[in-house]
Structure formats: structure tokens, C-alpha cells
Design a protein that fits this description.
single chain; 15 helices; binds magnesium ion; binds guanosine-5'-diphosphate; nine-stranded mixed sheet; alpha/beta; Rossmann fold; 2 domains
Length: about 600
């Protein structure tokens, strides 16, 4: 190995460094087994990294055409047929392939295509409004696998249902879907001019996504002189009406020309289309930035793991040098520190139980509030929609229609707000526990280092890495069907006014049932997430504490046993350990000095 003196391998990427460390630790045997496991998990996390980029905009702005231009061929259906009702996830695959996933666990459909044309027609059969009106086929999402080098590094492009459509519900769902995306491209064009619906949507999107960029599409419609005027005007609209700061990039483009250029290989047309700017400055930069942040975090985690193993090896080596009697004394002192840590672990468990209980109470409060809010809202809807009806079937139908169309959107939005609120709440509640847990583990390690007089530095990072989440689409089926009981014979003998109020009362009772049912669904889903968060936290803490105890107390106890049995091999063993220590220090330095920006093709900023 041609390592430089400070242990840095110029050009060694995180993948290689991880693989090398795992090989090294594997040789170390069972003592390093948990460290190897942790490093393998980090390796997987690095591999699975992807970047979700949602493409948003009103229908016919050119979303699908833009995606096709990025892929270099017409894969996604684009036509005058309005509205893709199903989100399509475009990701890397060695061969062209499409998959259709259904709701309700129906088996998926797969199609391996020989050419883009046949894939496009396959997709057309599922994702367009014409072939799948109101999503009668019950499709959850479509996936396209494409060998484009652009997707090679984990970029996932998401073609979303257009907004401002006949399905208001789609707009609401898009808003809930956004926080799980890393960035979004918002398409707009001069033809027709920006609409009120788009601006309203944009205002909401702004609040949900950090990295938002604009594409001013269909530039080919405008004469060269008019382009900068149109852009300036659009910027002003963005600023005045959606408070989008001027630093947010707007890329002028012609998706249609870009696609044509990529298919014909016309370089001039490609340059004029604006595609390259979007690709370079936006996708490359965003992806690199995200990948770098992740790699740096993973390198820190890996470094902490190696530090822990190094400490264990150091402790073992030191213990071998110390006379048995003194060793047993120190071991007893360390056991005292561990007992103290375990006592603290129990009392923090109690505190956590208390916090969990209070969080559940908070959830109940929120659910109660939502129930009242929903009740009032839908009561209003029923009263309003039936105001002009005097009774009978018309009245039932009017109320039923009004509730059915507004209910999914209402709860979709509430679900989004509630999960966001709870994520924040749980993070806030768990943070002090996290800090206490770190201190507790820290105390055991530091105690061992001091007692055995070995070098020690505290890990740099604490806390768990956020796992990589896939955006999910429509996971909830909201109960929104009312089944009004037909007016009974008794109703007809009642005077008109009374009849009306009897029906209204019945409708309101049904609405109440619907509200209770849906709020309960939402409460239940939140409760599950909450429990998973708390349980995950506790098991993580216990695992870390156990690992620390075995790396310290366990390692020294093993030496004591060894000394009692066969003291003749000790010098040999010590020699072997010294070699390990040197090698481990070297990879530890590799992780500590790792800096992802060195490997990126473009500097950030
Ligand atoms: N002139 C012109 N037409 C475009 C451009 N991009 C898309 N279109 C056309 O606009 C229509 C809608 O495009 P499509 O990609 O299906 O829009 P989507 O509904 O947002 O996915 C299609 O007829 C496209 O050919 C463009 O840059 N210039
Ligand atoms: Mg489309």
C-alpha cells in the first residue's frame, strides 16, 4: 500500500476506503464483528443513495417532453391528450423496462421493451387520462427503467400528475408528496400565460420544498427580442405573487427542440434549446451537493466505528501489559462505572416513557381538534349544498356529491400538516434524550480510557443518520362515500319543513360518522409512526450501550481469563495487536480526513 505519512490516500473514494476497512477488520475476527456489520450497513446506505427530482406544473406545460429530452428519446407519453393521472418514476436500469404498480396489492405488470416506441405505447395504456379515466385501473405508480447515463448516479426523475385539473385531489396529493422529494423543477410557459391556479399551487409548493427551480419552457414560441422581456415579466410575477427570491434560477428552454436535437444529433439546436444549462447547473450540482453531504456524514460514522474498535484493541493490548492483580482492580472500578451507566439508562428509560405518554396525549388532542374542525367544515358543506333543496332524493344527492368531492382533499392536506407537525414534535422530544444517551456512552468509554491509560478522543458525531426514504404516493384511501338512507314512508307523512329537517339531521349524522372514521385512520397511522420512532430510539440506545460495554469491560475480562490460562503466548499476542493498532489508526485517519468535495467533478457554489 502506497500510503502517505498522514494516512491519507489521495484519490481514494469512500467506497474503496470502506471496503478496505471491512477487509482489515474481518481479519481481526469476532472482536470486530459488530463494527464490520455497522460498516457494511454504511456501505449499503452509500450504494442506495438516490436523488428524487419531481417535475411539476400545470398540464401541457411540457413536463413529459422535458423528461424525454433529458432521456434523449420519447418514452413518456406526451400529446394533446390531457393529464397524466399517475406519477411516473424514471430511474436507471440496464435495459428499457416499465412496471405498473397497483393499489390494493394487485400483481404488478412488467414490460421489457426493445425500442422506445413500444415502451411509450405500453405506458400510454395505463397513465393517460384517455386510456385510464379517473384511474379506474387503480394504479398506484408507474416506473420506467432507462439506461441513460444521466440516471446512472441515482437520479430519479418523477413525472407528476398535472395540477389545475379536473381532479382537485391530485393537486392535494402532489403537495403531500413533495416533502419527500429532494428538489423540484417547476415548468411554466408563455403559452398560455401563467394562471391563478398555478400561482396558488406555487405558493404552497414553496413552503414544502427547499430546492425549487423554474423552467420557462416553449421559448421557441417567442422571437429572440421578446424572450428576455417575457423572462423579466415572469420573474416579476414570481416575486410579487409568490415571493420567490430573485436568486432562484429560472432556465429558459425549449423542451421540444431539445428532444428533436437529441434525436437528430443537431448540436446547434441542442445548444439553443437550453437543455445543457438545466442538466449541468442544476442536476449535476444538486446531486453532487447531496451526495457530498451524505458521504461526509457516512465517513464520520465509519470513523466513529473504527475508533471504537481501535479503543477495544488498545484496551486489550494495555491489559496484556498490566499485571493480573492490578488489572483485576481496575476492572472492578470499570464495572462500577458501567453499573452507574446502566442505572442512568434505566432512569432515562423512565423519562422517555413519560415523554412518550405526553406525546400520545398531544396526539389525542390534535385528533380531537381535527375532529371538531372537520365536523364544522363538512357540516358547512352539507348545509350549503342542500340550502336550496326542499327535501327528498335531490337533497341527499346534493349533499353526497359535495362531501365526496371535498373530503379526500381535506384529509390529504390535514395528513400532510399533521405528519409534518409530528415529525417536528418527535425530533424536539427526542433530542435531549439523544444527548443524554451520548453522554452516558461517552462516560463509559472515557472511564475505561482513563483507568487503562490509553489515548482517547470522543466521536465527532452523534445521532442516527436519517434513512433514505422513497417518496410515496396516495397511501391513504379516504372513506368519502355517503349512503343516504332513502326517505322512509314515515317521512312522507310529515309536513315539508319538518321533513327537510329530518333529512338534514340524518345527513349530518352520516357526515359525523365519516369524520370519525377518517380522523381515526389518520390518528392510527400517526400513532404507528410515533411508536416506531420511540421504539427505534430505545433499541438503538441499548445496542450502543451493549457494544460499548463489550468493547471495554468484555475485552478486558477476556484478557484476564487469558492471563490466568496461558500466559506464555502474551508477548506474541501483544506484537500482533501492535500491528493492528497501526493499521487501524491509518484507516481511522482516512475517515477523519475524508472530504467528499475532493472527489466531486464540480466545486460547489
Ligand atoms: N412549441 C413547443 N411545444 C412544446 C414544448 N414542450 C412541449 N410542447 C408541446 O406541448 C404539449 C404538451 O406537452 P407535454 O410534455 O405532454 O406536457 P405535460 O402535460 O406537462 O406533460 C405537447 O404537444 C408538446 O409537444 C416546447 O418547448 N415548445
Ligand atoms: Mg405529461
Amino acid at each position: 500500500m502506497d500510503n502517505t505519512p498522514n494516512g491519507e490516500y489521495p484519490g481514494e473514494n469512500l467506497n474503496d476506503l470502506l471496503a478496505r476497512t471491512i477487509l482489515l477488520l474481518d481479519e481481526l475476527g469476532p472482536d470486530a464483528a459488530s463494527c464490520v456489520e455497522n460498516l457494511k450497513a454504511l456501505e449499503k446506505r452509500l450504494e442506495a443513495d438516490h436523488f428524487n427530482l419531481a417535475v411539476l406544473g400545470q398540464f401541457k406545460r411540457g413536463k413529459s417532453t422535458l423528461l424525454n429530452s433529458l432521456l434523449g428519446e420519447p418514452i413518456l407519453p406526451s400529446s394533446v391528450v390531457p393529464l397524466t393521472a399517475i406519477p411516473t418514476f424514471v430511474q436507471w436500469g440496464p435495459k428499457l423496462k416499465a412496471r405498473i404498480l397497483f393499489e390494493d396489492g394487485l400483481p404488478e405488470e412488467e414490460f421489457a421493451a426493445d425500442d422506445p416506441g413500444s415502451l411509450a405505447s405500453f405506458l400510454e395504456g395505463f397513465v393517460t387520462e384517455e386510456s385510464n379515466p379517473e384511474n379506474r385501473l387503480g394504479i398506484r405508480q408507474a416506473e420506467v427503467y432507462h439506461p441513460s447515463p444521466l440516471l446512472r448516479r441515482g437520479l430519479i426523475l418523477i413525472d407528476t400528475p398535472g395540477i389545475g385539473s379536473t381532479f382537485q385531489h391530485n393537486t392535494e396529493t402532489t403537495l403531500n408528496f413533495l416533502p419527500q422529494c429532494d428538489a423540484a423543477l417547476f415548468l411554466i410557459s408563455a403559452d398560455p400565460p401563467v394562471t391563478e391556479v398555478e400561482i396558488a399551487f406555487l405558493r404552497e409548493v414553496r413552503a414544502k420544498i427547499d430546492h425549487l427551480f423554474f423552467i420557462f419552457n416553449k421559448m421557441d414560441y417567442l422571437k429572440a427580442d421578446d424572450r428576455s422581456k417575457a423572462l423579466q415579466f415572469f420573474r416579476k410575477v414570481l416575486k410579487d405573487q409568490a415571493r420567490i427570491p430573485e436568486t432562484v434560477p429560472v432556465y429558459p428552454m425549449s423542451a421540444l427542440h431539445a428532444l428533436e436535437a437529441r434525436m437528430s444529433g443537431d448540436r446547434d439546436l441542442l445548444r439553443d434549446s437550453g437543455l445543457e444549462e438545466v442538466q449541468d447547473h442544476l442536476i449535476d450540482f444538486l446531486m453532487n451537493e447531496k451526495a457530498q453531504v451524505l458521504q461526509d456524514a457516512l465517513a464520520r460514522k465509519a470513523g466513529d466505528n473504527v475508533t471504537e474498535t481501535l479503543m477495544q484493541v488498545n484496551l486489550t493490548a494495555r491489559s496484556l501489559q498490566i499485571p493480573l492483580e492490578s488489572l483485576e482492580e481496575r476492572l472492578e472500578l470499570l464495572a462500577g462505572k458501567i453499573r452507574e451507566a446502566e442505572r442512568q439508562r434505566r432512569s432515562s428509560g423512565d423519562l422517555l416513557t413519560g415523554d412518550r405518554k405526553r406525546t400520545l396525549e398531544f396526539l389525542e388532542e390534535q385528533a380531537g381538534e381535527l375532529r371538531r374542525k372537520a365536523q364544522a367544515f363538512f357540516e358547512g358543506i352539507v348545509r350549503e349544498s342542500t340550502a336550496k333543496e326542499s327535501g327528498g332524493e335531490h337533497m341527499d344527492r346534493a349533499a353526497k356529491d359535495a362531501v365526496t368531492t371535498t373530503l379526500p382533499g381535506f384529509f390529504e392536506r390535514e395528513l400532510g400538516d399533521m405528519s409534518l407537525e409530528f415529525d417536528r414534535h418527535v425530533t424536539r422530544v427526542l433530542r435531549p434524550h439523544q444527548e443524554r444517551a451520548d453522554q452516558l456512552i461517552e462516560a463509559v468509554r472515557r472511564g475505561a480510557a482513563e483507568l487503562f491509560d490509553i489515548p482517547y478522543h470522543a466521536p465527532e458525531s452523534a445521532g442516527v443518520l436519517e434513512s433514505s426514504r422513497e417518496p410515496y404516493w396516495v397511501t391513504h384511501k379516504w372513506g368519502s362515500t355517503m349512503n343516504p338512507i332513502p326517505a322512509g314512508l314515515f317521512d312522507w307523512v310529515l309536513p315539508r319543513g319538518i321533513r327537510r329537517s329530518v333529512i338534514l339531521k340524518r345527513l349530518l349524522k352520516q357526515v359525523e360518522d365519516l369524520v370519525i372514521h377518517n380522523v381515526e385512520n389518520l390518528r392510527w397511522a400517526t400513532l404507528q409512526n410515533l411508536d416506531a420512532a420511540f421504539r427505534g430510539f430505545i433499541s438503538d440506545l441499548d445496542r450502543r450501550l451493549e457494544e460499548t460495554i463489550s468493547a471495554t469491560h468484555g475485552a478486558i475480562r477476556a484478557v484476564v481469563a487469558k492471563k490466568k490460562e496461558h500466559s506464555e503466548t502474551i508477548a506474541e499476542e501483544l506484537n500482533r495487536l501492535e500491528t493492528w493498532i497501526t493499521e487501524l489508526q491509518e484507516v481511522e485517519n482516512g475517515f477523519r480526513n475524508f472530504n467528499a468535495t475532493r472527489f466531486s467533478s464540480k466545486p460547489p457554489g
